[in-house]
Design brief:
10 helices, 2 domains, Pantoate--beta-alanine Ligase, Chain: A,domain 2, binds pantoate, 3-stranded antiparallel beta sheet, alpha/beta, Rossmann fold
Length: 283
């Protein structure tokens, strides 16, 4: 696996692979990789011949009081994991390489409506930052397909919309969330949790799983289910940011008639904000 830091080197390596007739797969990340990221690479390697991973902690998607400075950077360990998972090329640009003209006057890609509620409500501008950097990476690599984790369900929905709206010929693949044995969704931010908080954290998944079981069993009183769910989270020591049932394709508030539903949750443990979701597919 080669690691390159410039767009020029990246384009040259991808062009070589493409000239050999290879299908290009992309897995954008912010590093500090865990098994969830490895699953993205594995999926890309199953569907493409040449897998490009990117590690870039994108300042544009962090709010002023968020963890940009402390976000874990573990390049050597990440390179090893990428190699094991079947990655061919790693792109690790600097902020200057990604934003050579600075970020203040940077063209912004904004996906309206989808970016506004849920995580967008408590992280204003976050999805503009994600949509912008992902668009740039798509233009730099021009992959045939790109893989993103379903754990960031709203992000995945935003990216599907931007590819559709901007006519990018890229297949977007969602990879199921990888969980610890106690159900906690893997996340780089789990590393911020104290042992006590780590013991509480799986309650987030337990609560959405309980709501999911009730909905699958025919309960359509979403308001009541969510109120109980928020109370359960608080009782376990989690501070709910949001807990919602949405229609899964467009993320509009769910109605009793909807059949493709997703339960989305975000909650704080101390200053760490965890997110999770449960997609209740029609079957
Ligand atoms: O999901 C992430 O790690 C990031 O939001 C992404 C997609 C790599 C964009 O910076």
């Amino acid at each position: 696996m080669n690691t390159v830091k410039t767009v020029r080197e990246l384009r040259a390596a991808v062009a070589r692979a493409r000239s050999e007739g290879k299908r290009i797969g992309l897995a954008p990340t912010m590093g500090n990789l865990h098994s969830g990221h490895a699953a993205l690479i594995t999926k890309a390697a199953q569907r493409a011949d040449f897998v490009v991973a990117t590690i870039f902690v994108n300042p544009l998607q962090f709010g002023p009081n968020e963890d940009l400075a402390t976000y874990p950077r573990t390049l050597a360990a990440d390179q090893e994991k990428l190699l094991q998972a079947g990655c061919h090329l790693l792109f690790t640009p600097s902020v200057e390489e990604m934003y050579p003209h600075g970020m203040n006057d940077q063209t912004i890609v904004s996906v309206p409506v989808l970016s506004e509620g849920l995580c967008g409500a408590s992280r204003p501008g976050h999805f503009d930052g994600v949509a912008t950097v992902v668009s740039k990476l798509f233009n730099m690599v021009q992959p045939d397909l790109a893989v993103f984790g379903e754990k960031d369900f709203q992000q995945l929905t935003v990216i599907r919309a931007l590819v559709r709206d901007l006519n990018m010929p890229i297949q977007i693949i969602g990879e199921p969330t990888v969980r610890d044995s106690d159900g906690l969704a893997l996340s780089s931010r789990n590393g911020y949790l104290t042992p006590e908080q780590r013991a509480i954290a799986p309650n987030l998944y337990q609560v959405i799983t309980r709501i999911g079981a009730a909905i699958r069993g025919g309960d359509r009183d979403f308001a009541q289910l969510l109120e109980t769910g928020k109370r359960d989270l608080a009782a376990k020591g989690l501070r709910p940011d949001y807990l919602e049932v949405r229609e899964a394709a467009q993320l509009r508030p769910a109605t009793a008639e909807d059949t493709d539903l997703v339960i989305l949750a975000a909650a704080f443990l101390g200053t760490t904000r965890l997110i999770d979701n449960l997609h209740l597919t029609k079957d």
